[in-house]
User: Fold these one by one.
Assistant:
Number 1:
Amino acid sequence: MPVVAYGKAKFNPNSKNELSAPTTHLSKTCAKHFTTMIVDEFNSSKVCASCDARLWAVTKVSDDDQDQEVRGLRRCSSTLCSNVSFKNRDLNAAMKILRCFQAGADRLTSLSRNPTGPTKKVPMRYYLCLRAAQGAMTVDWLLYS
C-alpha cells in the first residue's frame, strides 16, 4: 500500500477576500484511503531541492512602478543550479517534504527549526525586466542585493 508524506502546514488567508486552503479536510480524507505520514515542512519552499541552497523570491516591477513578487516562482543562486535556476515553489516544497520523510530523524540541517551555525542572511531579490524593442519582447533578470 502506498504511503503519502503530507506536509504539516496550516494555511491562513493572505489577503482580503481570500479563502484559506482546505488542508485539514484534505489530510483527513487522504488518511482514510492511504497510510499518511505528517511531515514538518519548515523551510521546504525556501531551500532548493536540488542543491540545498537558499531560494530567493523573484520580483517584477508592476505598471505603477511597485515591486511585486511573482507568485510561486523562486530562484536558486547556487552555481550547481545555474542551468535551471528558476524553481516552482510548490514542486520544490513537495520534493523537500519527500526527502524529509525519507530521512526520518536524520532531517537535513537546512530544513531544521534549530540549525547549528549562523542563520542570518542578506536578502537578495531578482527583478523581472521586460523590454520591448523592434516589435520583440526580451526578458532580463537583474539581481539586487
Number 2:
Amino acid sequence: MFTNFITDNETPQDKRCIGCNNRFPLSIEYFRENANKSDGYSQICYECEVTYKATTSQKCIACGNVFPLSSQYWKKRKETKIGFVSECLVCMRAREKQWKTDNHERYLQKKRIWISKNIERVNESKLKYQINNKEKIALSYKSLKEKFPERYKSYQKRYADKNREKINEKHRLYYNNNKDKIAIRSSKYQKENAEKVRQNTRNWRKNNPEKYLSCLHRRRVLLSANQENYTKDDVYRIYELQDKKCLYCGIPMINDKALATKEVPFYTIDHYIPITKGGGNNAENIVLACGVCNSRKNNKLPEEFKTHMQTRYGITIKIRE
C-alpha cells in the first residue's frame, strides 16, 4: 500500500513518512513514539496511520487479488499496523503445503520438537477435539476400516503394542464399573454362539498348551495338598442326602451318564468352598450340582454365587444353612 523507495540523507530534525513521502519535524506532534525504531518514532505520520487503519480491504502480495480485511481471507497478526498479514490465506496455505513437501524431513523434525516442548498443550487440544467431535471421529475410523482394512489393522496393532498398559487399565476400569452389563451381554452371546464359544475354547487350549497345563497343574497341586479326599461312597451318600437334586437350583439329576438328558442331567461334583479359597477335598466340602450351576459358580464362595445368580439371571438358589 505504501511506496517503497530509497530515503535521502535525513537530518535529526526531520523525517520522511513512508506513507505520503512527505518530510515532517521529528517530534511526537507528527509521529507516534515507537521504541523498536532506531530514532524512537514510527515510520508513518499520524495522518497516514489514521488512513491506514481505516483501510477495509487489502491486496495480496502473492496472487494480487484484493480481499476484505477479515479473518476469512487473512491471518491475524497483532504486530502489523492493520492487524493482518500481507498474504491471503489461500496463498499462505499453498506456500506452506509446498514447503512441507519440499522439506518433509525438516518439517517432521520441527514438528516433533514443538510437540515435545508443548506436550500438555497438545494433549489438552486432542482431548478437547475428541470430546467435541465424537461422531466425526467414529465415522472417520469406520471409513478407514472399510476402505483400508489392512492399514486399519496395522494401526490398531501398533497402537496396542505402544499402549498395552494403558489399554489394560482402561479395560479393567470399564469391567469394574459395568460387571452386570458385561455379564448379561456375555451370557446372551454364549447362548447364541454356543458352538463358536466351545470351538474358541478348544483353539485356545491348542494354541496355549503351556498355559492350559499350568492351570491344570495348579489345581492338581491344590488338590494334592489336602490330606483328606472324598470317596465314591461319599458321593453316593451325598447324592441320596440331596434327594437326587442339584443343591443350588433343585433340578432332578441322574447318576447314570448314558441316560442323562437336558431336563435330567448327570450330576457334577462341586467344592462348596472353592479349593482356591481354602476349601478342602473332603466329603464335608463336597456337594452335587448340575453342570450349569457348577459352571456358573466357578470359584465363587456360596454367598457370592447366590448374589451373582440373583443379579445376573434373576434366579434365587439355595445354599447350606
